[in-house]
Amino acid sequence: MDFYFNTVNLVLCFMLFLLLIILLLLFFKLKKAVLISFISVLLLSFLVVYMEYRSQFITFENLAANQIDDESTYWSMTIWTYDVSKETPQATAVASIYDKKIIQTILDDFKDMELKRDDVLRFYEREYRIQITTRNHFTFYVDEDYIDHYEILNDTNHLQTIEYLITSNDVLWEYFED
């Protein structure tokens, strides 16, 4: 079982234990200060669980915010396509894009994605690897349902421009032989 569920189970058991103590305190009518202390600890525990749960959710814009922002100048974007049907995914083609309009269109395709973190996922088993070069390098792996360690929760057509570029002559693709 992964860390998240172990943590949640531990906190839930702790909260159940505190609830039992509160009920016993109420039954024996002990002092209000003790009761308030236990209720406070119970509420704090609930808050910790809630914050842990909420931290799993993010948008693509928040995910990429540390690497790219509105002030970034995009120097290039490199896209690799992968054959994920094999045991080890193998790159099949690569294209480097220098046209800022195409780069922005691809980023616009991604901007509305709502994501949920899933550390069990193997992020490198995706159909595409995208590297954006600004003053930093921001690389992520993506397919229809996932981006890196995140499940895509909403219906987006985030691969539309990439799939168009694969079939068009707008960018030069270098294909790898098996």
Report strand order across the widest sheet.
6-5-2-3-9
Tell me the quaternary state: single chain
Tell me the number of structural domains.
2
What's the number of helices? 5
Which H/E pattern describes the elements?
A: HHEHEEHEEEEEHE
The biggest beta sheet reads: 5 strands, antiparallel
Give the DSSP E fraction (strand runs of 2 or more residues): 15-25%
Could you tell me the mean pLDDT? 81
Detail the poorly predicted runs.
1-5
Tell me the radius of gyration. 24 Å
Distance between the termini: 38 Å
Structural class category: alpha+beta
Total number of strands? 9
Q: What form results from the Cα inertia axes? A: elongated
> Helical residue percent?
40-55%
Structure characterization notes:
This protein is α+β, with helices and mostly antiparallel strands and 178 residues long. It has 2 domains: 3-55; 59-175. The chain has 5 helices and 9 strands; from the N terminus they run H-H-E-H-E-E-H-E-E-E-E-E-H-E. The protein has helices spanning 3-28, 32-54, 60-64, 100-110, 160-167; strands at residues 57-59, 76-83, 90-97, 114-117, 128-133, 137-142, 146-147, 150-152, 174-175. A 5-stranded antiparallel beta sheet has the order 6-5-2-3-9. Strand 2 (76-83) and strand 3 form a beta hairpin. Helix 1 (3-28) packs antiparallel against helix 2. The model is unreliable at 1-5 (pLDDT under 50).
